[in-house]
Each structure stands twice: as C-alpha cells, then as structure tokens.
Amino acid sequence: MATATAASLCLALLTQVRAADTDRQERSNRVADLLREVAQSPERAGPAAREEAAPPIIQWLNHVPAEPIDWQDKPFTEIIEWLADREQTGAPVEINIRTKKNVLEAAGVDAEYEVTLKLSGLPLRRLLTVVLDEVGGADPATRMGFHASDGVVTISTEEDLNSRLYLKAYDVTDIVLNVPDFTQAPEMDVANLQERQGRTSRGGGGGSGSTQLFRSSGGGDEDREESKRSARMDKLVEVITTTIDPESWEQGGGLGRISYSGSMLIVYNSLEVHQRIQQDFFGGVRLNR
After folding, report:
1. Do the beta carbons of residue 90 and residue 66 sit within 8 Å?
2. Residue 163, SS3?
C-alpha cells in the first residue's frame, strides 16, 4: 500500500513538473518571439534589414549611384533628367519625378541654374538635397525641397510643400513597448500535495478534484500592460504636440491632427512637421535608447 502511494505521489509530481516545464517553455518562447520581433523591426534592425523593409521609393532615395558625380555647370533641368535615369538601377519599381514648374517659376527659381558639383558615395536623397539647396538658395521664397510618396518624388518650394497636409502612420512599438519581466511564475505547493496524498492513503476520501502542485500567481498582466502602453502613447502625443510646431496642431489653433491605435501613431500635418517628427524626434529618442 505504501509502495502504491509513493508511486502515485511520484507520478503526480512528475505530471505536474512536466506541465510546469511546458508552461515555462511556452512563456519563454513567447518572450523570445516578442524580443525577436522588436529586434527585427525596421527601426531597430541594421541597414540591410531597414532597406529591405522600406517602400520602393525610399529604397530608391537610399540608393547610392555607382558612378561618382563630376558636374561642371550642369543645368538643373539636366540634373532632373539624370535622376530619372536612375530609376532602373535604384528601385524595384518605376519612380516618377514631378517638378512643379509653375510654382518654381512664380517663386523666381531659375530652372536652368547651372550646378557645379563633385562628390561620390552619397545616396540619391542626400544628393537631391544638396542640388535643391544650391538651386533654391537661402531665400525663403525660393528655398526648395521634395516630397516622396506613392512612387512619386515631387520637387517644389518648401513653402508650397508645407502648405499641404499629409497623413502618415508611424510604428512606435520599439519606443513604447515594455518587455515584461516574468517574475510572477507559479509557486510549487509540495506541502499541499503531500497533505492530500496523505489523506488519500489513510482512507480519508479522495474527492473529485485534481491535485495541484503549482499555485497560480494571478492574472491581469495583459490589461495592466495595455493600460501602461496607452499612458505612454498619451505622453508621446503630448510631447510631440507641445515641442514640434505647437501652433500647427488643433490644440494650438492649427489644422494638424494626431492620434494613435495600439502602437501606431497617426499624424496629419505638414511635410516639415513630419520630417521633424521622423528625423529629429524619433531619431533622437531611438539613438538614446
């Protein structure tokens, strides 16, 4: 009888341990998957992964021409034609370049302005910025910029580009995500198991309930974490709207709007505000994490 009771106790103990090991392994796998997802996100990954995940037009802008640039008095119109020729070498799909000639002419930009430039190893994005800075000059009325979206690179004055509002969504999971520390693991209740087995061996009634070796530590972690994430998103919205062109947002009397869904930040504002959010704000936050 004692042998049978010991065997039963060992079997129950082994069953509970195996179940606990399985549960711990599943939790470990979930954490590993979560960390892997964050590590492989475009903002956290290395240059190659970011390039692969980027839209085609961004891949084109990040493309570095194989040949060095050595222009002597090259007209701006010819530079635009040269950029158009880079479509087949720098992008997986066709890229269209739109120059808003009427706006540029009205602002006093010389379309035949001659550029002298010698450089190499720069992506098209940086090259285009250097050229537009040269052609547009420092005058706010003629200062030039570009906007890339849906396969089209639009070149115009900064004033014209910033007069339009653009809707963009930013994945800020890596900024607001808090990877939980699984400290509330199930507790081993050996005393309870031995007591129940002892009552069974003395004929005290078996009962219909199963013998539990581990006590649950309670739930609600997911709800608490969701509440924390929402609080972080609210704080992120507050910081952006109070530090980046506050008067451009609805709260400051402007037309710009900002909201979020989960860890996606949805922004409707000018190109300049988007650039400051993406480069200055997000870039600085991620650099210092």
Report:
1. no
2. coil
Domain's final residue, options 95, 128, 163: 163
Cβ atoms of 49 and 40 within 8 Å: the answer is yes
Tell me the two tokens of residue 101.
Answer: 């000639």
Total structural domains within the chain: 3
For the entire predicted model, the pTM comes to 0.53
pLDDT value of residue 215: 54
Confirm whether 212 is domain-assigned: no
Q: Which domain holds residue 168?
A: 164-180+219-289
Domain identity same for 57 and 136 = yes
Give the span between the Cα atoms of 127 and 134, in whole angstroms.
Answer: 11
Give per-residue pLDDT as tens, 196-250.
666 655 555 544 455 554 455 555 667 787 888 889 999 999 999 999 989 889 8
Rounded Cα gap, residues 20 and 213, in angstroms:
9
**38 vs 44: CA distance, rounded Å:** 7
